[in-house]
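Complex 473.
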Amino acid sequence: MYFSKVMKNSKKQIGFTILALVILILMQAVTVLRIYKLETDKFDTEYRELIINGLDLFEEAKPGIGLDVAHDNLDLQTKRLFEYYKFGKASDTLGFRKITLKLIQEDFEKNQEMDVLIKKILQNKKIKTKFKVHILFHKIEFDGYSDTLSIFNETIDSNWEYVDDLRIPDGALSVKRVNHWGSYYSCNYELLIDFAEKEKMVLGQIAGMMAIMLVALFVIGFIFITILRNMLEERRLSLLKTDFINNMTHELKTPLSTIAIATKSLSNSDFASDSEKVIGTAKVIGRQNKQLSKQINHLLDVSMWERQQFDLDKRWVVLGDFLHDLVEAFKWECKDLDMTILQDCKIDPKLEVFLDETQITTALHNLLINAVKYTDKKPEISLSCEYTDQIILIIKDNGIGMSKDNAKHVFEKFYRVHTGNIHKVKGLGLGLFYVRQIIEAHRGTIQLVSKLKKGSTFTIKIPSNGRSNNSTG
Ligand code: ADP
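Predicted structure with adenosine-5'-diphosphate bound:
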């Protein structure tokens, strides 16, 4: 009850932390976008002011330059086009107006001297950047010969594709809007400058701050992941502890209650007078006592294995004989069980390897016992062995198998797979832990491939310089 509450709370905490992190990231993103927008506006204001002031200075110093050159040229152009229309060579059609505007536009852009002037203004400020000047007409009309002809007026001719054809980039800086009256025309146009590297320049301004923000985000993310991992690990260990206490209580309780019943029987005078019954009960007590000490020793072993306070007692062992004896002993141990065990050794029968016979026996015995314990049908086990420059032992069973996720953890201390009723098969979750410790003490490895309801395969590899006992005589 308490535990599930703790789990619920930690789930909530994880949820809130993720939410907080997401909000933080979103806020950072919004802040970055806002700052980018502010920096772009700042760029526009600064450059607009710089260019307008620069142009004013140039015009003061040398009137009739810059846009005025284009204005004067436009007078000649409009006179020619206006006369063309006036003398009946063209009529007021959309086609005529479009062509006229295109010619005017090209003429104006060609004749303006803005490029040179703006380059000089930027150079004065030691700014080196590529740019392109654009002219955008909002209105232009011919005026003269006591007649007027509107060529383009954006409020009336809004359906024209004039602006699309021009392809003025979105971020182009609008420097100023000009109203001008020439001899044969009046117009309203906008002077725009497209800085090709504007985005780069703005980003350069905020790069430092963005880097700091990213580092801060990274640090927060890292702390979050560490906290999350610790929380999950704590939760897992807590679960493991509860399981272990349950299993341990069960393992100790069974022999203890048997001993209690046996002792009670012995205190009964009728029972005590029957020597056969007394001897039988004493044997039961003895067996249960042995079981109790076995479990307690198991637990004591854990700390010993953990501190690696053990020395392997390695000797030369004839591998084939060793495995054969082991399998035979196991068969005898399980003689009451209907099971098959196959042994497939592709090794030189005289091959000797250097290992701790007792420990390796414990490890293999644990694997074989598990193959019998964790099955719901007639156990079919196979033990194969190969030798190259290492001993390869493969134990395969047809048992209940397990999921990939459980297979990752089964070698951990006290880990047991949850099968709904955890007391159905006895155990403390130490068998495979010992197996791994023993194999690793031999500098070997153990791998498990398991499939639910299909069975499990344990592969042990122990590096060993074997010898054939022929050579030693
Ligand atoms: P114990 O058997 O005492 O629980 P082990 O460390 O030997 O401890 O095994 C850990 C868990 O791994 C077991 O609880 C069992 O669920 C699972 N397991 C071990 N061997 C097998 C196997 N051959 N087939 C299926 N499950 C297994």
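The radius of gyration is 46 Å.
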